[in-house]
């Protein structure tokens, strides 16, 4: 490596049995960078993305992508600047985005799985949020999997999160009634500010099924499920006929990876309401990302779109930020500024 | 009533707390028939249909149709002969089919919800099975809700039942691999005879998830779920990517109506496999019954279609037949010959 850079990064110390804590992550302060191979680029991260899906990766259980083994680099998307290139697709000084940054300051990326980011169009970190994976997730979850129609009631858990903020605004723009569920009043204030019709603080609500019933008198038509757990349970008791549940994330099961999730099941409710529960991964819609990005960009250009980021500084903060995210301690899209 | 007929029927004695037994049903041996009103017909039942959905009706819990109250006539579809008509649509001596016969020998039906049956086309009781609701259920559950495609593995619970027999044969004709799950070897022998590729006796299998894994090495693409319960649980651990679960019936929850069904939940599996769980009722497809009936009639004309009925004699046998059905004691489509 011509520049003799030293990398700092996080690797997995050990698989968490339940919720991860800082002992499960190992900081490495002096890691040499490999020499670039043909079609690779060296990128200095400017922002790394902290996402709930990472929990699923740090498990010996087979998931939808290969897991990380102890000693392995933890996975993260990011956006940053090319500082060395052995690809004719990328020049030094360009900004790029990829799912493969990892929890580190410098990343060697293959050109084929890296996208350019134009810093003149939007803040570069929007490629990690509303113009990136969370935005695409909101769009396809709401319109394809959820099949939301104007006039319907759309309930969104983790409503002020990276996906929830976009989904709520898309639902409102589509003529739906948008109901936010979040973990504190500040988040719900923000949800109302960005257009949600009503907000439910699930941590302060004694009888969540009844509260959802009160807030959704005709039942829930579309449940954008970012959490599983108690919110899911409460919604399943309040389905409207032909309801759709878009299963986007299961962060409330973060302490149960590889263990059974025991509780009430709702097959009779699914049958009686002709409901549809569907899991989805945004990657399955990769061929249609442009459609979603164009749609969301339209809102951004309108000036009506709002988005809150929750930014921590420095690669050192990555582990704590991830743990906080699993406890809903973030407020808005969680990013690490490098 | 000109004919001074005396009706015999079953009414609900009391809501069952768990599984119904004979004490929950009251036989009435001498019930006068009402006078026909305009657009009504009096029909003498020849066959009554015994179906698992009836369990959902004998509950104070709201279901997809109004429940029966204690003292009320129990619901059943049937086929029979018009013996008096005040409708210009029906003549005495014609055969008709309706969902509204009830557990009784004579029924007063409204012309609007009654369909003619041509006894020259097929045995009249086929309008209660493969050319009636169970056949339609199999067709729409397999092709619409399950979206079965040639080459896929389709697993069907209650595989030798009224719906399962049709679904299995349709799946095979469509080029799918059909896997039967049933409660004894005689039923599985029949399943193999009508074309299922392989059969699983869930009562004699110690490790059902492993057995399903062995029988479905690529996972289950379509699960035609007639039962919920332990078979559902075992299948959910063996989903292929993009699997579809058509929730058609929940007979294994017959002892839990109005009570929570506690057990393992599969949201993470649904997410990771991008699976779809969808409840459906055949009535929602009413506009397309002709399509389904034509399709199934084609098989019947081919001479390749096979169907087993399990017939008991006399209205007196209705309660025991229904209870037996809930315990999987029937073998084939359960009918009462009046």
Give a nutshell description of this structure:
The structure is a homodimer of 338-residue chains. The first copy, chain A, is of the alpha/beta class and 338 residues long.
List the helices and strands and how they pair.
2 copies of one chain form a homodimer.
Chain A: E1 6-12, E2 25-32, E3 40-49, H1 54-57, E4 78-85, E5 95-98, E6 106-110, E7 115-117, H2 133-145, E8 153-157, H3 162-173, E9 177-182, H4 185-193, E10 198-201, H5 208-215, E11 220-225, H6 229-236, E12 239-247, E13 261-265, H7 267-272, E14 276-279, H8 289-302, E15 309-313, H9 318-326, E16 333-337
Parallel strand pairs in A: 8-9, 8-11, 9-10, 11-12, 12-14, 15-16
Antiparallel strand pairs in A: 1-2, 3-4, 3-6, 3-16, 4-5, 5-7
Helix pairs in contact in A: 2-3, 2-8, 5-6
Structure description:
Two copies of one chain form a homodimer. With 338 residues, chain A is α/β, with parallel strands linked by helices. Chain A folds into two domains: 6-128 and 308-337, Quinone Oxidoreductase, Chain A, domain 1, CATH 3.90.180; 133-283, NAD(P)-binding Rossmann-like Domain (Rossmann fold), CATH 3.40.50.720. Chain A is 25% helix and 28% strand. Chain A contains nine helices and 16 strands. In chain A, strands 3, 4, 5, 6, 7, 15 and 16 form a seven-stranded mixed β-sheet that branches. In chain A, helix 4 links the parallel strand 9 and strand 10 (198-201). In chain A, helix 2 crosses helix 3 and helix 5 (208-215) packs across helix 6. The longest helix of chain A has 14 residues, at 289-302. Chains A and B meet through strand 13, helix 7 and strand 14 of A and strand 13, helix 7 and strand 14 of B. Strand 13 (261-265) of chain A pairs antiparallel with strand 13 (261-265) of chain B.
């Amino acid at each position: 490596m011509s520049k003799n850079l030293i990398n700092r990064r996080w690797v997995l110390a050990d698989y968490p049995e339940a919720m991860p804590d800082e002992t499960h992550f190992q900081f490495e302060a002096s890691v040499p960078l490999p020499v670039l191979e043909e079609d690779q680029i060296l990128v200095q991260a400017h922002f790394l993305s902290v996402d709930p899906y990472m929990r699923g990766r740090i498990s010996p259980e087979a998931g939808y992508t290969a897991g990380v083994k102890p000693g392995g680099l933890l996975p993260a998307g990011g956006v940053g600047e090319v500082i060395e290139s052995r690809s004719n697709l990328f020049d030094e000084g360009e900004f790029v985005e990829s799912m493969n940054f990892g929890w580190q300051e410098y990343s060697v990326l293959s050109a084929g799985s890296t996208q350019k980011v134009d810093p003149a169009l939007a803040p570069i970190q929007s490629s990690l949020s509303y113009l990136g994976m969370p935005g695409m997730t909101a769009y396809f979850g709401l319109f394809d999997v959820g099949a939301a129609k104007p006039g319907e009631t759309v309930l969104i858990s983790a409503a002020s999160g990276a996906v929830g903020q976009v989904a709520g605004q898309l639902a409102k723009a589509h003529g739906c009634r948008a109901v936010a569920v979040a973990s504190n009043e500040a988040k719900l204030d923000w949800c109302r500010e960005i257009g949600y019709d009503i907000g439910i603080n699930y941590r302060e609500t004694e009888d969540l099924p009844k509260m959802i019933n009160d807030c959704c008198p005709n039942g829930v038509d579309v449940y954008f499920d970012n959490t599983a757990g108690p919110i899911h349970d409460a919604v399943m008791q309040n389905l409207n006929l032909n309801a759709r549940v878009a299963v986007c994330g299961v962060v409330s099961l973060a302490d149960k990876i590889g263990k059974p999730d025991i509780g009430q099941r709702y097959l009779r409710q699914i049958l009686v309401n002709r409901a549809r529960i569907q899991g989805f991964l945004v990657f399955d819609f990769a061929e249609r990302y442009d459609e979603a990005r164009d749609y969301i960009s339209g809102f951004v250009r309108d000036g009506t779109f709002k988005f809150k980021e929750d930014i921590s500084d420095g690669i050192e903060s990555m582990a704590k930020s991830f743990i906080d995210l699993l406890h809903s301690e973030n407020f808005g899209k969680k990013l690490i500024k490098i």
